[in-house]
Predict the 3D structure of the following.
Amino acid sequence: MRGPAIIGVDTGGTFTDIVAHVDGELRTHKLLSTPHNPALAVLQGLRELLPGSLPFGLTYSTTVATNALLERKGARVVLLTTAGFEDLIEIGRQNRPQLYALEPWRAEPLVPRNLRIGVCERMLYDGTVHVELKPSSIRKAVERVRRLRPDAVAVCFLHSYANPNHERRLGKAVARLGDLFCSLSHELVAEYREYERLSTTVINAYVGPVMSRHLNELSAGLDGRRFRVLQSNGGAISAAVAGREAVRTCLSGPAGGVSGAWRVAQALKLDRTITFDMGGTSTDVSILEGGPRYNSEWTIDDLPLKVPSIDMHTVGAGGGSIAFVDAGGVMKVGPQSAGADPGPACYGKGRLPTVTDANVVLGRLAASSFLGGRIALDRDRALRALRQLGKRLRLSPEAAAEGVVRIVNASMERAIRRVSVERGYDPREYALIAFGGAAGQHCCELATALDVPQVVVPLHPGLLSAWGAATADVQRDHVKTVRLVDPAFGTLRRILQPMQELARAEILAEGVRRDRLRIISTADVRYQGQAHEINVPCDSRYASAFHSAHKRLYGYADKARRIEVVNVRVLAQGRTARPRMTQAQAATAQTPAHHRVRSGGHWKSARIWPRSSLVVGRLLRGPALIVEFSATTFVPEGWRARMHPAGHLVLVRGN
């Protein structure tokens, strides 16, 4: 009897990727995304990959919430907050991200002033009621909401993390208005820092209706079959929870790639790696040391979010990033992208030069081998686009293309330095895991610039984010603000126990077996008087772990100083079925084709090797192109490539 297929789907700005493990066979598919309605590409891809009514379990990695936020295409939101704090969303904090800008820029608040309503109530930091929320205040607030006719309502009261009673009462009253998305802060962020909690609640209300509609449409196309959605922390939640708490999916797409890269690192027994995910629109980088690192406070487009996420950095540099000359006569690349429509010029519809067009002109993409030959790249059209760019700079098309590659490489190099060097990690001690449809054309040059000794290009590199989604654990997070100075671990354990029981029940309700359940407890700790915390394991050695982490990050530790535990956190993981990623077919000997690539201002003779023809242990010398369905890897002169027994491609400099 055939078992259910295990499917992972990743929707990006340019391509939608699907992997399916069916009865020991790995099936893959890649098709152009449909940005106006991402569900269309997903459903079309599933029909083409899995004809018939085969049962399956699907995990979906999506950029719907991210794009709604970045493009400001979310819901019309009314904010209900404690009277006197209506402008907190606009005031923010005194931090100045653009310290020396003469005209600093700040993102416009998602809720304009006329849609912010102050409610007469006040809770103190310890949960004590200072000003009672009266029924008359509830009626006034609800009536104003009714007159404003919003798509969604965000409710965030002062210190509701300590006592959510007022928020619950107002939330119930708002719910009686009918079909209105309502976001309550204590359900999303049960911890202090009012501005970040308020911003997260508003963002959830802003993207929630968009995400809910999309997931409902996808569910209808799947005939109501249940599926899961990948969170920003790399774990999966049910589609129902993702619709209610859409803010948890704002980095869903990149998180799948990091999760997949960690599976690769484990297969190769690499404990220290840097992930490099270059797709069509952006590049995401992260550092793995014994596993992914997590961050509970981060930003998108200068808007703060306070929900757990894999710690990563994103730049607007992808294969579709558009190259242009600015008003000062300087070449720039990105962050604008050609996306799936019209796409790079070489796809046959676009006219503007992109990074992909530059790689085609330089011979780093073989026009006839792209997506297994399903899309024939138009080199002449790419050449015309680069010629127009070069004219403005008095450069040949080839020199302009090399300039595009150098600029985008510099942008991605800065991103990697930000997650490594700027945080005390030496890239020379790490391997670079390169994946995404475009990473293979740039990974070796980036490794050279960073002095990284080894690059790993996984199996099916252009589909690794979808594979990461397919193999993602079911995951739930809970946090509680405690603000305790030098607490005994027994005190913390008593606080953690009910949180652990709740998280365990949520995971078991998802159908995960008890023996596949894991509970991880951590604490946010700081020296008393500091403004920011470090997250460390919450066990009997939490204090020494904090001192060690503080010394590594800031260069010193003061063991005589009192420490404060600000928050305790519980992460519950339910391990799902995790099939092995395998080659689509056994290696078959093939004669490589001759090719020309341009590097360092000169054309050089190279060979094109189908990845399916590579055998374990055989060394290939650059320059060469290694082509496969989902990606192309450029091996420059001075680099060597060999196939690892696990099926992953390992590249090293010199010998």
Q: What stands out?
A: The CA atoms of residues 1 and 23 lie 10 Å apart. The chain has a mean pLDDT of 91. The longest strand covers residues 474-485.
